[in-house]
Amino acid sequence: MDSPNQYFTVGSPENDAPPMSSSQHLALENLQLRLENQRLLEQLHQQIHDIQRERESVRLRLIAVESDYDAQVKELQGEVISLREDVQSQKRLFKQTNQAQQETMQNLSERNNALQESLEESKRHASSLTVKAKELQDQLISSRTAIQSHVQQIESLRAEISQLKEDKASLERRLATITEERDCLLNALSDAQQTTALLQTENSNQLSVLSHQDNELAQLQEAAAVLKDQLETLGSRSSPRHKQKFLQGEGDVGEAAAALPGPSRYTQPHHSLLGELSDAVPAHQDQWWYRHVMLDPTMSEFYEDDGIEVDDDSLLAFSRGHTAGSGPLAMDFCNSEDSAVNANEEGEVILDLDPNYNFMNTFRTEVAEIYQQLRQMCVDFSAQSNAMAERDALPSSRPGDWTPDQLALVEWDFRLASLRNVLTDLRYLLQDLTIPQPTTNVAAASSPPIPKPSPSDKAIDV
């Protein structure tokens, strides 16, 4: 049926005639409405005629259906009786379910009360930590007098840095060997992917592994949330007075470094995330969590996937300032070499005796262990997702036409994205833990300035 708008736009004389008065325009519209009403009346008559014919046919069908009505009524009565029994059983089941839910809610309320009590305890602990922070500020003021003694240790630290550079070269050779082994393993993996029949038999085992990894992922996410809360609680210790004294201590250290001979003055890189990490306290260089958070080369794939921009100058400055702590391969050597240095430094012995410092070390160690576990899980997920992607590529058809294996591949991708998000949060948490330190002035005076890398060094590191 043609719409009135189409009739007015196509068949009205207004499109062809010149402008007319309002009375003529109204008369023309009335004529058009009469024609439209007449056409609609004819259509209604035709529809009424069709409905009457349908009513006659329905009456004939109704006469035929009435003969079967009695038999169907008896069958429906039997079905109603069975349905009543089913409804009674469902009501009993519903009552049992409600009772179980009430018990569960009661248990959850009890756990909530216990958690609230633990939260109050944490607040009281935070207040005590604030008092300790004030005590540390007083210790920081007294430690400024020991800066001159640390200046004499700079020369010995330079010799150690040269030794660490040599160790870095050996570690790079070991890394090249491991890379070759990885290529061999990748070739073996490509050959193993051809055995699709064995992968189908292991589908049930992979599902159980997935459920187990989901549980671990949930536990790690809960642990990450708890660690974030603890970090915020510890971050509340800092006050404006402490920050002012911290900046004043940094200015004193900069004046002491400027008074050194020419070779000891270097151009510092501009401030960025890795630049701050490169100027952090060298007293933590022997801690494996401190080295692991500084952009482990084996995690470059995941850093690129997370979309984090890294300053090349800051990265190179850090790689030269912390050569021995570039990844998990240097843990054994750094733990053995830096332990001798820590035994001879007065400032770090004071840090080891500080209970707050020991607590922070324990806290960082726990965060780094969770980070390593989550990183290994992310590597496993990535390898399995790549294997499934090569085996079952997603078609260009609709999602409703996908096979179960292809749907499992999509699920793998979602799990991998979730793992990478948690991994990014933990990495930010570790980086935040490495920057603010209570003894920054003392340790910064004992660490030499980090030179700005040349273009040739940048090309070598890349």
UniProtKB/TrEMBL annotation:
Question: What UniProt keywords apply to this chain's record, in alphabetical order?
Answer: Coiled coil
Instruction: Classify the source by domain of life.
Output: Eukaryota
Renumbered to this chain, region (Disordered) spans: 1-23, 440-462
- Any coiled-coil ranges, and where? 34-237
The protein's name is: Bicaudal D-related protein 1
